[in-house]
Amino acid sequence: MNVRVKLFxxxxxxxxTDEVLLELTPPVxxxxxxxxxxxxxxxxxxxLPSCAFAVDNEYATDSTTVNDQAEIAxxxxxxxx
Amino acid sequence: xxxxxxxxxxxxxxxxxxxxxKCGAIVLFLGTTRxxxxxxxxxxxxxxxxxxxxxSQMEKLAAQAQARWPVEKCAIAHRLGEVPIGEASVAVAVxxxxxxxxxxxxxxxxDRLKELVPVWKKEHWADGGTDWVHPGLSxxxxxxxxx
Lengths: 81, 147
Known about the structure:
The structure holds two protein chains of two kinds. By secondary structure, chain A is α+β, with helices and mostly antiparallel strands. Chain A has a single domain, classed as Beta-grasp domain (Ubiquitin-like (UB roll)), CATH 3.10.20.30. Chain A has helices spanning about 10-15, 30-40; strands spanning about 1-5, 20-25, 30, 50-55, 60, 65, 70-75. In chain A, strands 2-1-7-4-5 form a five-stranded mixed beta sheet, with helices on one face. In chain A, strands 3-6 form a two-stranded antiparallel sheet. Chain A is globular. Chain B is an alpha+beta fold. Chain B has one domain: Aldehyde Oxidoreductase, domain 3. Chain A: One of its GO terms (biological process) is Mo-molybdopterin cofactor biosynthetic process. Chain A: One of its GO terms (molecular function) is nucleotide binding.
């Protein structure tokens, strides 16, 4: 299945894009996505362990499962305010 | 009123959004952009967000504050894009019958907002450099001064 991962701030700069398309074999969890993203965009490797992930606008954990309709976002540590 | 905006934050509009005859207290907090971080000078800051999630997280926080304190209304506004020094990048307002609840709820809302709402700040330094601010992140190779 195809999974699109949105990138923001430093992750966007390091990857040189605001979205990465991953082709993954189900079942897919956030742990799978994190590992596949590190492989697809090695420049993200050092900061991915510090990033949170969201599925459909909700914070997810590594065990959260992902279907092919889900909107996935990789969120580096936030700094609003 | 919960909003992300590219315009200047209008504090009076935020105050009016939480105003209620049932309340004896309104706490309005404005987070403003600072010129110096330690000795380093900032020219301007810019903010970016994961818009739909930032909006839903802020709405959720406001609902949680209302469940936790006897709070009448909450308003949150976060500015996006470039924010010149000294202007408000964020506003939180809370109204409640008595002041202690409004102070506590506003403080709690700001703390949670800074932890959970997907907004990122970029420093544009006076020396010409720029840095994304990512608390707790050690600088990756090739990047200097990331917080």
